[in-house]
Write the structure tokens for this entry.
Amino acid sequence: MKILSIMKRHKLSGVGAAMITPFKSDFSCDWDSLRSMLDYVIDGGTDYIVSLGTTAETPTLSPEEKNEVLRLTKEHVAGRCPIVAGAGGNDTRKLTQQISQMDLEGVEAILSVTPYYNKPSQEGLYHHFMTVADSSPVPVILYNVPGRTGVNMTAETTCRLAADHPNIIAVKEASGKIDQIDQIIKNRPKDFLVLSGDDGMTVDVMRKGGDGVISVAVNAFPKRFSHVVYLASQGLFDRAAEAYEPLHEAVCALFEQGNPTGVKAALAITGQIENVLRLPLVPATDLLMKKMERLIREYELC
């Protein structure tokens, strides 16, 4: 299949914002708040936008809502930064059909999660992603997040995919295993990007040679978190770690009751969105809200 465009791989280094989907009190999509959120993270220093990922509560969005999220995102970003679109599933054939029906014009890459629930073998993961890469008209970023999917894609499988398919250009690594991430960094092909999938590990991953992060925290604290990643990208790792220190407790709190429960709580506190999630997710408890309010105020995070 013809590739829509040959991307410059460095475009997707730095910090990518794993965008939320704001909802109104009646649980409908809040399109105005999505526009304002896009401005908020771009103006705060985000290098690229990741639309329709886990943080977007994508499993609860209808096909029509997913199409509108991506359409609006492309329209409102209007070339200010690159866009990545989430496209994952645990039925390979259905996923390739879904990708063929997506409007990926103006999208730099898709982010595709390891198949969940099925628990495929490493060989199954390899053939799944080779098939996805064959079918995608844009480059593919692998997404390894065993805490959500029930399967860990090993460093060997990631590097094998990176070496065997030119359309596979990066991995978002959220295994939480720094040794595994280090192994990928040491054995990856030239120009293959390794992106942290854990906000709290970003500086450590970049210190080892990683290329950035796809971040939840940058939704809530765009200027502060983008500055941390910028310092790390300049090789100023000690300064980056120092800049991250005031964020650490708040970033941990973002994930205390799951994602995007925490980040929506923080954004509601700062007046960016309504604190509404779709079941089975529910808003943060009063205890977490009070904790987040204190941390935002104490460390002047917004």
DSSP finds 13 helices and eight strands in the chain.
